[in-house]
Protein 1
Amino acid sequence: MLTFNPSSLSKRYNRKLKVDINIVPYVDVLMVLLVIFMVSAQLVDPRIIDLPNARESVIQPDEYIEIILKPNHLVSIFVRGEKDNVGKKNSFPRKYLKRILRNLHAKNPSMPVMISADKGTKYQEVISVISEAKITGVDRVGLATEQ
């Protein structure tokens, strides 16, 4: 006769529980998200920059130095609000801009600078003129826009 002994059964089939995280579903979700981002990245054109429109400032200064940048590396400087205009006669090369701006700023340190640039002027040139104006000590630098 066979006898049933539960202790012998538990010894034979003693299995340990496998405590493990199944990461396959997480990898599937990440792959789907990666595909979605890759497809949507092709739909966005990185060359389009939506710049805000500029409004006229509330208080326009009475006197300011206007720097006009032209695409052929020539610059004109006008002192608006005064009778003597420095750049009235002709344009000059951009390498003289720093010296002239330093002289104008020494005469009137509180006078702001307004920069106008032709559409054909590179953005880097405008940024370097702003940097030169800040180096010479000009506190207020503005960019002229069309409305």
Note: The two ends are 106 Å apart (CA to CA).
Protein 2
Amino acid sequence: MLSSASADHRSPKPPLRKQSSWDALAAAWRAILAALSCLYIFALLALLSLTRRYAWAFAILSDALWAKWLTWPFFFLRHVPAVQRWVLEPWFQAVRRGTPTDVSFVDPPVSSAAGARSEGTALLPRLRGAPRLWLHGRSGMGKSSVFTAWQRTYFSGADSPNLATAVRRYGFILIMLPVRPYAALPIPDANRPETWVLEAVRRQLEEFGFAARDLGLVDAILRVGHIALAVDGTNEADRDLAFAAFSRQQHAHAIIGHFAQPGNLPMAPHAARRTQRTHSRIYAVDMRR
């Protein structure tokens, strides 16, 4: 009886409160965050894998919105050479398809200041050990022909069918920059003359399908991606200051090009010329050929 009486005097249990949607969301936020993170990573990897076949995938990844709100895609494109090589593969194949191979060409002999002689096309592999190589000679000596031979050697070699093998062979990604088509191009930022070179490179990449609209992304790829810039005809644009600023700030891993006058070394005008000569190797087209 005592136990029955005590049971009768116990407090009744409060009714269970129905859980609200907000409470359920708060309780499951860890699981939701993990799911969203997985979806984000999956979308990023999917877009990255599609950049080798579809230009729109790279357009999404390279959009400036990623730099403002979701930084990882832009970080990978800016700072990871392997990712850069992956997204540049379609560009490499486009340049390869557009490079004529059935061309008659006599490789001109060239000589260094020390007197060592070689062929013009042999200068390209030497960029591994020399960050600046310049070829000079009078008009009609074949400098532009050597420039196009560098392109054929790098992009059309039977032993370099893709960008990865070309980089393993030469140690860099080669971007060909003919100056004449961009001679009238205005400087995007008057306080940064090197932006003229960056814009010219951006447009040259865009011509073969690599549409990077952000100059900051182009600048980062040039700085990080072991890019070698091959320049044709620096005397065809009045942009000595732009080239000098570009070279001085190490925007490219290596630079190879040619110029007409032996006393006017490109990318090193005025006071910077003496310093730049110590980092450059100059070759002359041999007049005795």
Note: The radius of gyration is 29 Å.
Protein 3
Amino acid sequence: MSLTDRWPLPDAPGVRDALLTAYAEPTRAYHDTRHLTEVLDRLDELGGGATALPVVLAAWFHDGVYDGEPGAEERSARWAETALAEVGLDPLTVAEVARLVRLTEHHRPTDDDVHGTALSDADLAILAAPLTRYAEYVALVRAEYAHVPDDLFTRGRAAILRDLLAKPHLFHTSYAELHAFAREVGIPERGFDRDHYDVPSEWYDRVVALGAEPVTSRELIRRLVGAGLRRRKTPRR
């Protein structure tokens, strides 16, 4: 399926074409139509709330403006607000699209933000790509900032990566799915303990019937560690 066919508003082809023109600008090396395609592919893989209209539209707009200058996310969000309002999209959806685009500046959604975690994870998925694709990504981003001296670029990229590494976890989607399931089942928020929910024994049959998989404590920890989702207790001082 071509990118043209993946645009979710068939009555607004002009907005789609303007975005495709922006992503095809010759100054772009990484943040181009291939990146947009990859983000949409990751959202499709996540499924569920990740393919909701606001998330897909935010994916289209999140790098609508990309010129190597500060504030690109804010300008992309404002473009979304203006363009989507002009084609008659309802205000709540427009506001959610703009919120999601702004979120991609720092990629710090809360774990219960189903839309935000999906877009953030899809946008950052390149950091978990196979080595050859990741190496290509690094080179392409450097090409987009060819006008920046090596020392300044290295310091800037290092600061971005340090900020991402400072997050409790780089990717969020598994937690978002967990919180969504807990809400569906009716488990209160206070039942969440760092990286899992404690469920009363009398709820066992119900949550299993709704899709939870019974595992031992040891197996739960093994899976959390293997997925990079284990959160250890913070030592008391």
Note: Residues 10 and 16 are 9 Å apart (CA to CA).
Protein 4
Amino acid sequence: MSSTEFDPMELPGAAAWQRSLKPGSSQDAAEPLPGYLTYIKYEVGLDRAIAVMRLLVPEFVEIRGCVLLRGVESYSTETFEQWWSTLKGDVAAIEDLLNRLPLWDLFADLTEDGVTDRALAELGSSIELTWKAALSKRFPNRRFLVEFRDETTGYGPTVSFHSLM
């Protein structure tokens, strides 16, 4: 995880929701504003929570020794075959390419500011941690390098993984 804790209620949508709760109507003025669990309860919903859970704890498919994220747009039989041929069956190189997740691509209409940067860094560190655990559990006899790169150029903050041979 990152070295500083990030409060999800700092994000604009969550902060606006929190501000919309008027003391005296649904809560006592002396009580603190609801936090992220209440936000999830009323604003996220089970379908979105499960989608995010799948991001954090993905399913995998194994093809020709390559471990790939299941159900992501970067993978198809055609793209796999193309990269298998181009990279001459280099498992780690194919995995690194097809298992790359640029975090900016996950969200529409992000604002480039300090709060967003900190939130993406926290998310990337969390994905790195949970992917390591998921890969270790699913493939206990294999070793993987899972990396979060908080790049300021190129694709921006990115999480990826590949086998260590």
Note: Helices lie at 12-20, 36-44, 46-56, 77-86, 91-98, 114-138.
